[in-house]
Design brief:
- There is one protein chain.
- The chain is α+β, with helices and mostly antiparallel strands.
- 37% of the residues lie in helices and 41% in strands.
- The termini are far apart.
Length: 157
């Protein structure tokens, strides 16, 4: 199942990329939402090969997601691959500089089932595709607003 979303952000591609690759703040944000995030690689600098284990509760059950950074191109692309017990998927983010202070963020999300139960889950998700897409678009708009707010704060400082 494939989803995509895009949003324009009032910040330079470099600033947007820096915000998206601030992995420690993403880890803290996930923990504030109740997830347990563990970094499982030994890399000192952000780069391909970074991995995490994320434990969280979804639909009344504890879940485990193994997540890895598979693509990193400075101020242009980010790619993650994840795998759980039932599903696996990829997230690709592309940054397009529209002007020196405006960036378009395009995200592609592909989810694939690993079990028959997951296949049935995705089939029901296809029926709710419009609702899921609307939630994704809303979250992308929130992300854009957060990055714009950080950018405004950085300019004032």
């Amino acid at each position: 199942m494939h989803f995509s979303a895009r949003t324009d952000i009032e910040a330079s591609p470099e600033f947007v990329f820096k915000s998206l690759t601030d992995f420690e703040s993403w880890e803290r944000a996930a923990m504030r939402r109740g997830a347990d995030v563990t970094r499982t690689d030994k890399l000192r600098e952000p780069g391909r090969g970074m991995t995490w284990e994320v434990r969280f509760r979804f639909r009344g059950k504890d879940r485990l997601l193994k997540l890895g950074l598979v693509e990193l191109e400075e101020a242009a692309k980010l790619g993650f691959s994840g795998r759980g017990k039932l599903l696996e998927g990829d997230v690709r983010m592309e940054l397009v500089g529209l002007s020196p202070k405006r960036t378009r963020l395009v995200m592609h999300l592909d989810v694939r089932p690993l079990t028959l139960g997951a296949r049935l889950f995705l089939q029901s998700a296809r029926l709710a595709r419009g609702k899921i897409q609307a939630r994704l678009n809303k979250r992308m708009a929130q992300l854009a607003a957060e990055i714009e707010q950080r950018n405004a704060s950085a300019r004032r400082a």
